[in-house]
Amino acid sequence: AGLILAILFLAPLLWTAVTSIKPPAEASAAPPTGLPSRVDWSNYQTLTTYGEGIISYLLNSIVVSLITITGTLVIGTLAGYGFSRFRFHLKGTLFLVILATLMVPFQSIVIPLFVVLKNLGLTNSLLGVGLVYITLQLPFSIFVMRNAFDRVPRELEESALVDGCTQPRMLGSVMLPLVMPGLVTIGLFAFLAAWNEFFAALILLTKQTSFTLPILLLSARQDDVSG
């Protein structure tokens, strides 16, 4: 059963790999053909030579992903710890407001975000796009990390503080190893969102040198069709 599931999950990837080495006529044929009549590497040559080259766009995607992961982990962890361990006025209301932003479609706030980035001088900037991705990931990340910290017994913190451990050291040395599953979860979600995100990058990045991989693929495909 596990082997069958693995084949089902790998089948789309294998089909994509096979299609990528088909001649253009076979790749766009309907109904689709099976194995290619000959191996054609023109698609890879196009990506290698298109614009700044695929390596440049790959690095752009890596930079944006690293910015997103780092910001999400740091802010999500600190905010989740604050909501879990500290008491402050309107704590519950603020947490609900943060979760409510999950129901706001990104398309409805893309123009205000673009204006904010323009005022900050971060248009066509990988840092600006990374900050937008962090903003989109924070509600889910804060929710996950608050629940992760809630499951850690408070007695562990009290014991560490009694032994002379400072609050920052206690958070880094005692708490973080215990909530590692939550950190891995939000890190993976942040990476996948930043790596695959298309709409925000399409709107916020207009300079070809700043394109990420999803925008590169669309741009190369459009040029190929128009050509």
Give me some keywords for this one:
227 residues, globular, mainly alpha
Structure description:
This protein has helices spanning 2-20, 24-27, 42-49, 54-85, 91-100, 110-119, 126-150, 154-162, 167-178, 180-196, 199-204, 213-226. Helices cover 73% and strands 0% of the residues. The chain has 12 helices and no strands. The protein is an all-alpha fold. The mean pLDDT is 86.
Compact summary:
The chain is an all-alpha fold. 73% of the residues lie in helices and 0% in strands.
The chain-level structural class is mainly alpha
Calculate Rg over CA atoms. 23 Å
Q: How many β-strand runs?
A: 0
Quick one: overall form?
A: globular
**Low-pLDDT windows of residues:** none
Q: Main sheet?
A: none
How many helices does DSSP assign?
Answer: 12
Q: How far is the first residue's CA from the last residue's CA?
A: 46 Å
Provide the residue-averaged pLDDT: 86
Helix content: over 70%
> Could you tell me the strand content as a percent range?
under 5%
The ordered string of helix (H) and strand (E) elements is HHHHHHHHHHHH
